[in-house]
Write a structure and sequence with these properties.
203 residues; alpha/beta; GMP Synthetase, Chain A, domain 3; 2 domains; three-stranded mixed β-sheet; 9 helices; 6 strands; binds zinc ion
Amino acid sequence: MEIPVCAFDLKTGIFCERCEEKIRRGEVSELDIRVMRSLLELEKTFHQLQSMCYVKSVDTKDAIAVVLRNGNLGAVSQQSLALLRRKLSDSLGKNVRLVEDSSDIGRFLEPLVAPARIVAINKIWLPDNSMEIRIILDEDRGLKLSVESIQEIVRVTKNVNLKVDFARRSRKRVLPVKEKVVKEVEAPEDRDKRGSKNHVVSL
Ligand SMILES: [Zn+2]
């Protein structure tokens, strides 16, 4: 497997100057090192990993997203990918999502937001010269990763802030919550006032 540090360094845990510099700059994180070690171990039995290229990992609250080079996952059967994902999850002790990299942000995002669909995507340059991407998804039902996790993946791998909106919110979840909140925020003194004439008049 192609990795951003020397395989030898990874095995010994002693990094050469070039690798040390990547770690110091934050290009390679502690998590990357853990994930690459697991992947190199798995490579012995999962030979398809040999032709793949490791890009980056992001630890989100839902899963560890492991990003591999564009085209790496498409060449492998769904069955093999499921097995690889399970083995890597076991090795890291947390659920793993395998993600294929793409320079096209829309294509990169598609599998992350599935089963929702991207209905609009806009790139916005902010005054400080950073870029923000705003996407509108068809609906929020059934997202496999939370919006926060998707934002974190995009922030770490693409260095971009992502805003997510929905064309349609699933009704089932939103309505009962609103009703409940209204009841909860009613303070005891409001309830007392309700019985008095003054309060009724003031309405
Ligand atoms: Zn090195």
